[in-house]
Amino acid sequence: MGALDHILDWFEVTPRRKKRKAMQTVEIKVKMDCDGCERRVRNAVCSMKGAKTVEVNRKQSRVTVTGYVDPNKVLKRVKNTGKRAEFWPYVPYNLVAYPYVAQAYDKKAPAGYVKNAVQALPSPNAPDEKFTTLFSDENPNACSIM
């Protein structure tokens, strides 16, 4: 054993390793009007440590960053370019049970997307819900004339 090993054993110092961030995809909504805006946002995000791929879709006002990054740091970096930015508030239309519920339908949403809002289920005593479940296969008391 060398002197350094002896000292390290005496102090019981173990090298600490940083936890690596998980690979994730961060989507941000940013209003971009021109090529200069797009280039400024792309350069700000591409220079981040851990960013693997950056996709900018100016038509949808969407920036997608994939890599070992912190979502809050990506949002902060985009905001530092002088643009108003927020996390991507939309989900695909086919993943929502009631896409036209209050606060979910947004005219500004890209085609095929609705706002990610809390989905309220209809009241089980509502008349339209009673007629819908009357002939349901999941209802054990349903009518079996078919």
From TrEMBL:
GO terms for biological process: response to stress. The keyword NADP does not apply. This is HMA domain-containing protein. Its main location: membrane. InterPro entries: HMA_dom, HMA_dom_sf. GO terms for molecular function: metal ion binding. Belongs to the HIPP family. Keywords: Cadmium, Lipoprotein, Membrane, Metal-binding, Methylation, Prenylation. One of its GO terms (cellular component) is membrane. It is found in: Membrane. SUPFAM superfamilies: HMA, heavy metal-associated domain. Residues 23-86 form the HMA domain.
